[in-house]
Fold this protein.
Amino acid sequence: DAAHKAMWEKLDLDIEAHDGLLAVLGKFYGDIYLSQEGRLKGAEYLDFVLSEVHGLRIKEIQDAKAAGKKVVGTFCVFVPEELTLAAGAVQVGLCAGAKAGTELAETLVPRGTCDLIKSFVGFKLARLCPYTESCDLIVGETTCDGKKKAYEAFSQLANMHIMEVPQCKAPCDMTLFRSELVRYKEALETLTGNAITAAALAEATKVVNAKRRALQRLSALRAADPAPISGRDALLINQISFYDDPVRFTAKINELCDEIEARVAAGQGVAPKKTPRLLLAGCPMAVPNWKLPYLIESSGAVIVGEESCIGERNTRDLTDETPADLDGMLDALAARYMQIDCACFTPNDERLDNIAALAKRLNADGVVHYGLLFCQPYAHEAMKVGKAMTAAGIPYLAIETDYGMEDAGQLKTRVEAFVETL
Ligand code: BJ8
């Protein structure tokens, strides 16, 4: 409507290109989401949030800014939302899952860069993302080479803070990460003018843990056969967790879980009992990257879990709520975040065990590894995961793809062939 348009103009978006993007997104969402059968009533919340992804939520964020709040954008689950919230700021995820502004992006990052990076750079250069344009500070991190070098270029376009994330997990790495938490805390205090107190951090930790618990509850319910929720909807829930208000989100997902519990008790699901069940593992799938989940779920299988940062890797571990002083709380944060089994770490063998355990817990019949083209860390681990799954007797398929649609037919053929063997 006119008010939204005025807001987007104020954010200096390219209105015509942005209209085009929303039209494509709406069509894509209709085909992939609204066409599903046996959807939960609580999915209305998902449809609403998505239909207003560049509308109402941006309006709320603008209102918060007008009231003096700061907005922090992130690209990685290593950035602790607990600290951001404790400083009274709003945190939003900026990873992007659509092909947009690619040519512009390639003026800033090399062609052989993964689409996740090209997408957030492209969205910025093409002036398409109201979240990016709302940020007062954007936090980068030294994870993969692609991201860390892209942030050097990106910092010419936005106010950035770079966190050093270690690549190993020895005691000295823990010390380094702990000191980076302090540096991030100080950056937030400078940005917002608010001191981060023990009381504020304790409260923020409760909020973020409650969000994780709701997502853990959802994950646990997906062990049921028949699967009570589609993988597409579960992925969307995890995607929305990165930009909706955390307290509202938690309440809505707990309501949805109540509905799922009733469904499981009644033996109902989105696909018949004994439908082949797959665990997706690998690179994060940012909104609206729904290509592979859609292909899988239209090939006679159902997805029962996501071993990615837009999934289990972001929700598996809680932050210890028992420390009473700031120092203890920062120790707890460091301990919690350093458990993340990102492929950027070496070695990263715990990930292999975590995938096998997750597949077992979710009663998965197989694992599909998703790697983005040009992503070195996950391409290497796809091979290791394949060996580990074979050793554990779990059927395995590795897929490497990008945000384009050109390979959709070929991917579907491979997925269908894999599903047939299950
Ligand atoms: S903690 S997974 S969110 S770094 S796909 S940009 S790795 S070349 S996203 Fe990640 Fe944090 Fe790790 Fe999670 Fe690089 Fe690969 Fe691209 Fe990637």
